[in-house]
Amino acid sequence: MIEKLLSAVKENTTKEVVLNVIVNMLLALILIDISCFEDYGSPMHMIGPHTSIAGGIQNAVIQAYELGASAFGMFTKNQRQWVAKPLEEEMIFLFTDTMKKLGFSSDQVLVHDSYLINLGNPDSEKREKSLNAFIDELKRVEQLGLTLLNFHPGSHVNQIEAKDSLHLVAQSLDIALSETESAIAVIENTAGQGSNLGSSFEELAYLLEHCTHQDRIGFCIDTCHAHAAGYDMSTPETFESAIQRFDELIGLNRLRGMHLNDAKSEKGSHLDRHESLGKGTIGWPTFEYIAKDERFASIPLVLETINSEIWKEEVQHLRFEVWK
Ligand SMILES: [Zn+2]
Ligand SMILES: [Zn+2]
User: Fold this and answer.
1) Among all ligands shown, which has an atom nearest to the Cα of 223?
2) 162 lies in a domain?
3) Ligand 2 centre distance from Cα of residue 14 (Å)
4) How far is the CA of 29 from the centre of ligand 1 (A)?
5) Which ligand is nearest to the CA of 50?
6) Residue 191 Cα, ligand 2 centroid: separation in angstroms?
7) Residue 142 CA to ligand 2 centre (angstroms)
8) Distance 221 CA to ligand 1 centre (A)
């Protein structure tokens, strides 16, 4: 019966209000089963994959719950399109209600913006388009009662110097933050592939220095990107020295999330190729270290690993088995 109801909810695209009753019944039923991980002790970290909004944004929450996750990443619209339909009141209600019923709060969710946005584009018309889309992303986060919007700094598209492009990103961020209320712009480090900005902590720090709304700027370290950018993530010791460097330049208090991804690519290759945890050039010890480190207990640790069929095991390993 639970499966039937779940798939009914997942297939729902427009009639959110009608299905709200079903969602409530469904949530009541699955909450009965809430104590399934009790035997493992008391995990503290917030860990989970980037889940899917196919069929409705509330499905991201349901999928995270089904996977035994205590955090998740999500988009609030199709990430490959510029424009999305505005969030309707019913959709917002359905999302926030599902969050509440399944016991998730906003600090467990790291929203990712569209892949198309480039706030550092030297072409003013294209940058304007990106800026408008970014403002819309921030507003959607706020409408959903969430806080964190994760994004890649941008690209200089081989037309201007990296520093000049970073200035444009800072400028765009200032405009976007002044036009929104409360969402935090969470800047992610990149692998430095092609003309992408933000592969070094120095560049991220430079960006921060040039923003005036620093109280609403955060950072997300992606382990795969860091490793590909040349920060050795393959042992807890080398991870630690990278984190120390981040702390010196930016401050760990500004770390608002992490992406836990193993890497298919070699250290320093600048190739953004994710791998399942433990199967790449980083390996389990670093992820296990992060999952037990108190400094990372209050931020969402989101998996963007490539095999969704083993997400449940990956989450279970990091949330519970590391403590055994
Ligand atoms: Zn990432
Ligand atoms: Zn990536």
Assistant:
1) 1
2) yes
3) 32
4) 34
5) 1
6) 7
7) 25
8) 8
Separation of CA 304 and ligand 1 centre (Å): 7
DSSP string, 127-159: HHHHHHHHHHHHHHHHHTT--EEEE---B-TTT
| Residues labelled catalytic | 80, 112, 115, 152, 188, 222, 225, 259, 272, 274, 304
Rounded-to-integer distance, Cα 12 and Cα 172, Å: 36
Which ligand approaches the C-alpha of residue 151 most closely?
Answer: 1
Element (H, E) at 49: strand 46-49
Please report, as a single letter, which amino acid is at residue 284.
W
Over its length of 324 residues, how does the chain's per-residue pLDDT go in tens digits?
Answer: 455 555 655 555 555 545 555 666 666 555 545 444 444 445 689 999 999 999 999 999 999 999 999 999 999 999 999 999 999 999 999 999 999 999 999 999 999 999 999 999 999 999 999 999 999 999 999 999 999 999 999 999 999 999 999 999 999 999 999 999 999 999 999 999 999 999 999 999 999 999 999 999 999 999 999 999 999 999 999 999 999 999 999 999 999 999 999 999 999 999 999 999 999 999 999 999 999 999 999 999 999 999 999 999 999 999 999 998
Those residues whose beta carbon sits under 5 angstroms from the ion ligand 2 are 272
Residue 10 lies in a domain: no
Proximal ligand: closest to the CA of 222: 1
Answer whether residue 26 is part of any domain.
Answer: no
Count of the separate structural domains present in the chain:
1
The CATH number that applies at residue 78 is 3.20.20.150
Contacts of 181 (CB under 8 A, 6+ apart): 142
Comparing CA positions, the residue from 183, 193, 184 lying closest to residue 222 is 193
Q: What is the largest CA-CA distance in the chain?
A: 58
Its domain, for residue 153, covers 41-323
In a domain, 14, yes or no: no
- The amino acid that residue 84 corresponds to is A
